[in-house]
């Protein structure tokens, strides 16, 4: 009987652990229990603890191994805060991995005021990813791109006259308008791998 009860307890613990999508703490910051879910590029009027707005990326250079870009962003909070860093995880565009450098320049937020970050985010896509994306865009262009991933906003948020260190999770799952002008799609028609433009 004791063995059966222990087994049930162990299974419950395993399922509970599997259901925990976010850790309790990251880098000493307590993780906010309710993530921000961004599924639109438009800023909504609905009240959120923190609002995170991303602008369209711009080209910032290229090398043999990667293409670099930058994009500005803005934050607002329903309470005053000092944002200390922002970190992205597993960001993809149409399934292609995108690397974003950690933003570690601290800045202040006033309550209910949208503040543009003091510097843009810097990111890059590997040359292989760029080639894959270009090929997909040429052969099967899409009107919208799918952006997925996560980020954490680390900061000190004020509430009831006290300051709390928090890591606010942000989930991205949205479609954005394809920024590349429409091009002729290329289709292959074997035999002979003949090209056909549509």
Summarize the structure in words:
Strand 5 (about 60) and strand 6 form a beta hairpin. This protein has a single domain (about 25-195), classed as Sandwich (Immunoglobulin-like). It is α+β, with helices and mostly antiparallel strands. The longest helix has 18 residues, at about 1-20. It contains two helices and 17 strands. The relative contact order is 0.19. Mean pLDDT is about 75; it is low at about 1-20, about 185-190 and about 195-198. Strands 1, 2, 3, 8, 9, 11, 14 and 15 form an eight-stranded mixed sheet that branches.
Provide the CATH topology: Immunoglobulin-like
Going by helix content, strand content and strand pairing, the class is alpha+beta
CATH architecture descriptor text: Sandwich
Number of helices: 2
The Cα radius of gyration reads: 22 Å
In terms of DSSP E residues, the strand content is over 45%
- End-to-end separation: 70 Å
Fraction of residues in helix: 10-25%
- The strand count comes to 17
CATH class: Mainly Beta
Based on Cα principal axes, name the global outline.
elongated
* Uncertain runs: 1-20, 183-188, 193-198
The profile of the biggest β sheet is: 8 strands, mixed
Structure at a glance:
The chain contains 2 helices and 17 strands. It is α+β, with helices and mostly antiparallel strands and 198 residues long.
């Amino acid at each position: 009987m004791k063995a059966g009860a222990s087994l049930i307890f162990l299974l419950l613990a395993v399922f509970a652990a599997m259901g925990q999508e976010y850790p309790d703490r990251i880098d000493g910051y307590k993780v906010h229990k309710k993530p921000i879910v961004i599924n639109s590029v438009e800023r909504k009027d609905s009240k959120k603890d923190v609002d995170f707005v991303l602008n369209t990326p711009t080209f910032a250079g290229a090398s043999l191994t990667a293409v670099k870009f930058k994009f500005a962003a803005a934050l607002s909070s329903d309470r005053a805060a000092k944002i200390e860093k922002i970190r992205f995880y597993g960001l993809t565009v149409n399934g292609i991995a995108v690397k974003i450098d950690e933003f570690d320049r601290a800045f202040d937020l006033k309550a209910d005021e949208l503040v543009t970050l003091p510097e843009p985010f810097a990111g890059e896509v590997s040359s292989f990813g760029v080639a894959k994306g270009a090929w997909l865009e040429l052969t099967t262009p899409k009107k919208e791109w799918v952006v997925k991933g996560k980020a954490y906003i680390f900061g000190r948020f004020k509430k009831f006259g006290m300051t709390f260190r928090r890591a606010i999770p942000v989930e991205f799952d949205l479609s954005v308008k394809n920024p590349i002008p429409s091009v002729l799609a290329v289709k292959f028609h074997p035999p002979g791998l003949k090209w056909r433009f549509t």
